[in-house]
């Protein structure tokens, strides 16, 4: 006689099978955890939660601070909090290099790569090491100023990274007040003591500041509670239990077999589409989707492997998966590639020098743009291969490639077609840079921010003025020794400059006339950063108002000599001005900022505070 409640019987069997499966496959850690719970004789349970702060900062993509200081640097993330729960702008915190969308609106802005997955929005990262490997149960991020930039938290294994996607989407935070950010995290199946934070500073109106990161975890892998809402179907045995359901599956298969499926001899109307139209349709797919689609049929395989689909290729969103095998797999498809983004890839041995060299020797002939930011596998051989195999290269980004030895940069001088060169936080030395400037006269965009090994920036500026007449943007952020002499040579020779960053250059003094000279010689300036130069005065602001009417972004953070009257003249004259940073300007109080905001509503006027 059939059971009265057949569904209940099936569910009972399913529940029993899950219990038996989990009992059979329980790990030693799970058994020990059970014993710890059952025994009252132990002093501490094995799975007591461990709470620890970061022991060391291993790697990062950028920071606001200097390479020779602790102020505003990523190294402040190591150890206990310095500031939290206070809110405000503090030098003891970790601050990334940029904020907001302003960097995307200046002359040096680069065109984005297409096919970037919508789920990937990271712009910067920092990697933190902790003392004890644990199974994470929570991650607390102590944010003390303009929170809301963290978009992804990753745990490192020996692989090296877990492939879990972000557990929580970024959300805009109203106000700069401090907070403890504790997003939901996914359980991982390995212990870790290396956590990576990825941030998107464009979500915020100003610099975000992080004080510390707290990792909570247990030493033994947690036992999955039977009260969880879902049970993985892969946990069911495929041997013994499969036999019990064989009859039911046979019946179901017979029912499906009754339906007659018409077999098409061709791909229907898809074959009638023009080749170019199919290529256009496929151009909207991401790289992983292209690789999957290539496995469906011969026609789509042909389209997905067409080198025209890989003219612009960004592998940065997949940095944790890219290795020598990946490059070898893509090699035949990238013979016509013009833009290539390998930023963040290849670290911890994932990409070898030989693997990178083989790829470029096959795919480098048409390369125009090469992004290699934070590529710590790069060495002198790699730069030599780049210069030999990429004769058409116009843009090279080596930002934060701090493992490249100084002598290796001499090879860049062989690429005379370069128009953009980013050397931020590299070990380039003066001799190599002089050679690059001498032979790369087509340069339009040059970043030398935080290049601490250059001894005489006046000599560098003089060479720029003599050789780089087409220069449009120049980043000299935290250049320690440029003087009014170098500025004069630069302004006289590079009169097409539209963007100039002289932030934190302490040797420049307004009393020498260097800033008024800039304003008079560079009428095309759209962005000028004079961050933390205490000597900027009303005369400099008035010269900018009179001569640089196209100015869009101005940073005079920290000056004590600028009055509200000169700022009003500037705002009235520069109709396109959209960003004005007057943080810590002693004569510009909150009342003045409110008044200026009311009279010039199209300008974002920033005034930082400290509590």
From TrEMBL:
Keywords: Leucine-rich repeat, Ubl conjugation pathway. One of its GO terms (biological process) is SCF-dependent proteasomal ubiquitin-dependent protein catabolic process. CDD domains: F-box_FBXL4. Residues 267-322 form the F-box domain. Pfam families: DUF7885, F-box-like. InterPro entries: F-box-like_dom_sf, F-box_dom, FBXL15_LRR, Leu-rich_rpt_Cys-con_subtyp, LRR_dom_sf. One of its GO terms (cellular component) is SCF ubiquitin ligase complex. SMART domains: FBOX, LRR_CC. It comes from the Eukaryota. This is FBXL4 protein.
């Amino acid at each position: 006689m059939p059971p009265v409640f057949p569904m209940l019987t099936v569910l009972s069997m399913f529940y029993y099978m899950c219990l038996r499966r989990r009992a059979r496959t329980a790990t030693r850690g799970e058994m020990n955890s059970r014993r710890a719970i059952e025994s009252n004789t132990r002093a501490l349970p094995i799975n007591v939660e461990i709470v620890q702060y970061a022991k060391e900062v291993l790697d990062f993509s950028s920071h606001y601070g200097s390479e020779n200081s602790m102020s505003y640097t990523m190294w402040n993330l190591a150890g206990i909090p310095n500031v939290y729960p206070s809110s405000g702008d503090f030098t003891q915190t970790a601050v990334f290099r940029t904020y907001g969308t302003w960097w995307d609106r200046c002359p040096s802005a680069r065109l984005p790569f297409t096919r970037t997955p919508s789920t990937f929005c990271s712009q910067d990262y920092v990697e933190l090491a902790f003392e004890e490997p644990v199974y994470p149960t929570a991650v607390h991020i102590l944010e003390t100023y303009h929170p809301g930039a963290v978009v992804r938290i990753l745990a490192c294994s020996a692989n090296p990274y877990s492939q879990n996607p972000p557990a929580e989407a970024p959300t805009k935070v109203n106000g700069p007040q401090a907070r403890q950010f504790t997003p939901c995290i996914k359980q991982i199946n390995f212990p870790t003591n290396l956590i990576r934070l990825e941030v998107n500073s464009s979500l915020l109106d100003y610099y975000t500041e992080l004080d510390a990161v707290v990792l909570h975890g247990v030493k033994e892998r947690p036992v999955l509670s039977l009260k969880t809402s879902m049970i993985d179907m892969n946990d069911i045995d495929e041997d013994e239990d499969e036999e019990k359901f064989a009859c039911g599956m046979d019946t179901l298969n017979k029912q499906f077999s009754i339906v007659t499926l018409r077999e098409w001899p061709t791909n229907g109307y898809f074959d009638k589409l023009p080749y170019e139209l199919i290529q256009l349709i496929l151009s909207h797919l991401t790289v992983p989707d292209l690789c999957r689609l290539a496995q469906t049929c011969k026609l789509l395989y042909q389209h997905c492997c067409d080198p025209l689909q890989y003219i612009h290729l960004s592998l940065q969103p997949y940095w944790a998966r890219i290795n020598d095998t990946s490059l070898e797999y893509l090699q035949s498809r990238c013979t016509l590639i013009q833009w290539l983004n390998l930023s963040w890839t290849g670290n911890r041995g994932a990409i070898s020098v030989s693997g990178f060299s083989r790829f470029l020797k096959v795919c480098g002939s048409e390369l125009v743009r090469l992004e290699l930011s934070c590529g710590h596998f790069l060495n002198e051989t790699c730069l030599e291969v780049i210069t030999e195999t990429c004769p058409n290269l116009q843009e090279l980004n080596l930002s934060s490639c701090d493992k490249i030895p100084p002598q290796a940069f001499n090879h860049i001088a062989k690429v005379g077609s370069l128009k953009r060169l980013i050397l931020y936080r590299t070990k380039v030395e003066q001799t190599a840079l002089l050679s690059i400037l001498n032979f790369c006269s087509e340069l339009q965009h040059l970043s030398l921010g935080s290049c601490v090994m250059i001894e005489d920036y006046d000599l560098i500026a003089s060479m720029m003025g003599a050789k780089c007449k087409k220069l449009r943007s120049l980043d000299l952020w935290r250049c320690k020794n440029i003087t009014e002499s170098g500025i004069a040579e630069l302004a006289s020779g590079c009169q097409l400059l539209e963007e100039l960053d002289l932030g934190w250059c302490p040797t420049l003094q307004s009393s020498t006339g260097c800033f008024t000279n800039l304003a008079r010689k560079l009428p095309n300036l759209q962005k000028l950063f004079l961050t933390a130069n205490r000597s900027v005065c009303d005369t400099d602001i008035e010269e900018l108002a009179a001569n640089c009417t196209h100015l869009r972004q101005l940073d005079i953070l920290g000056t004590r000599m600028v009055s509200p009257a000169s700022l009003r003249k500037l705002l009235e004259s520069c109709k396109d001005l959209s960003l004005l940073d007057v943080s810590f300007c002693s004569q510009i109080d909150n009342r003045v900022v409110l008044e200026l905001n009311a009279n010039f509503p199209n300008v974002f006027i920033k005034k930082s505070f400290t509590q």
